[in-house]
Amino acid sequence: MMTIKKINKIKGTFSLPSDKSISHRALMLSSIAGGKTSIDNFLHCDDTAATLNCLLKLGIAVNTSGGSSLIIEGKGLRFKITKPEVRLNAGESGTTMRILSGLLCGQSFNTHFQASEGLSRRPMQRIITPLTRMGAVISGTEASGNVYPPLYIRGHQPLLRPIDYVMPVASAQVKSAILFASLYAQGMTTIKEPSPSRDHTERMFTLFGMNISAHKSLISFECGQRPVSPEKIFIPADFSSAAFFIVLGLITEDSQFTLKNININPTRSALLQVLKRMGADIRIINENKAYEPYADIVVKSSALRATEITSEEVPAMIDEVQILSVAAAFAKGNTAISGVEELRVKETDRIEATIKNLSAAGVTIYTEKETLTGKEKLIIQGCSKFRKAAFSSFNDHRTAMSAIIQGAASGKECAIDNCECINKSFPQFLQMIDSL
Ligand code: S3P
């Protein structure tokens, strides 16, 4: 158990780790592009290491001697593997397994794709359904109406088929798996999402010289285009990592600070609008309109009030619902977040984890089923008297970081177990919290 100390009066300027989702995609596209790519400000963490290791096993040459600057020699769409089968391991990284599967089903060799314990419990039918319709042959462990890792992906040549796919659930991982598979098909692929999920793959396809059109939640891509290296990619800081500090700044007394170069892609940063509705004093300055927009975010302590979040807003803040729940616990009134059911199939059941941790701290928090839509709604009552609590990370990085922010802002000498999972996305987090 690690004890959590009180934090307030945060001042200064902070740099945060680079974006995880963009780092994964930069690695994958650079590997299959024509030309050499230098990736600046790459995120080194457990999840991106999983992608990097898979690509190394697929014969990609990566120069990592420059620390956060990597140089990748693109090998073209087909990996030069002569063996009939390759064994890969995605560790705990869902993004690695789901997106790379799209790319692997267009190769000539078979892939045995393994996962660590947590990822082995996460559903893969969501990628298998569209990829199978494209001609891929993928199997895994079947249980309770879904398919789980390890996956076995049969090599497929010459070409996959394009697809018109209406996604039942907004998911950037599924959308990206289809887009990567479309590189190995011919014809037009269209994807329709219930509401737009993060569009990093679409932006990076454009950066690599391909035409892709995206209007609201309809994406069209002419299959078979070839990615060409942009030579240099700069990866801004991760909004999801920044979210923990944004909320910490708002709910601690007498804080005012600046977070540098944070990705403010609108399909990622819906939390900003929600927090502003809650009365947050947040300013965006020094905006840079690169292929991924980024800016400095100035945060000041604020008295928050409750708000209602619609299910359409959730995909653009899917990884921030837990830290928003912490902000809601410090706000006045009842906050309701509609359409949270996808959080049940993340690294852990994040609804159950959030309810357990916040309840332990004295917060009234529960879910309701909406009668008309069948969607799940999370309700968090603003709390005026927090308690000392023993939190669990549930082996999930975002559950751990959210609980630590809760405990540090309440100042109730809380404790938490198993924080190694934070290395999944933000290895410097505990050191930064300690320094505050
Ligand atoms: C991610 C997409 C999201 C997100 C995950 C990273 C990505 O998952 O929760 O942390 O990089 O594409 P879904 O695609 O399942 O919504």
Describe the model:
With about 425 residues, the chain is of the alpha/beta class. The chain has twelve helices and 23 strands. The strands form six sheets. A four-stranded mixed sheet has the order 2-15-17-16. Strand 12 and strand 13 form a beta hairpin. It is globular and about 65 Å long. It starts with a strand and ends with a helix. The relative contact order is 0.13. Shikimate-3-phosphate binds near residues 171, 173 and 197.
Features:
436 residues; alpha/beta; 4-stranded mixed β-sheet; binds shikimate-3-phosphate
Low-pLDDT residue intervals, each spanning 5 or more residues: none
Cα-atom Rg, whole angstroms? 21 Å
What general outline do the C-alpha atoms trace?
globular
Strand order of the largest sheet: 2-15-17-16
Largest sheet: 4 strands, mixed
Structural class, by secondary structure, is alpha/beta
What proportion strand? 25-35%
N-C termini distance: 20 Å
Overall strand count = 23
Q: How would you state the average pLDDT, rounded?
A: 97
Helical residue percent band: 25-40%
State the helix count.
Answer: 12
Named once each, the bound ligands are: shikimate-3-phosphate
List the helices and strands and how they pair.
Blueprint: E1 2-3, E2 11-15, H1 20-32, E3 36-40, H2 46-57, E4 61-66, E5 69-73, E6 85-89, H3 94-104, E7 110-114, H4 125-133, E8 137-143, E9 146-154, E10 164-166, H5 172-182, E11 188-192, H6 200-207, E12 212-215, E13 218-222, E14 232-234, H7 239-251, E15 256-263, H8 270-277, E16 281-288, E17 294-300, E18 308-309, H9 321-329, E19 334-338, H10 350-360, E20 365-369, E21 376-381, E22 390-391, H11 397-410, E23 415-416, H12 429-435
Parallel strand pairs: 2-15, 3-14, 6-7, 10-11, 18-19, 22-23
Antiparallel strand pairs: 1-23, 3-5, 4-5, 7-9, 8-9, 11-13, 12-13, 15-17, 16-17, 19-21, 20-21
Helix pairs in contact: 1-2, 1-6, 2-3, 3-5, 4-5, 7-9, 7-11, 9-10, 9-11
The structure holds shikimate-3-phosphate.
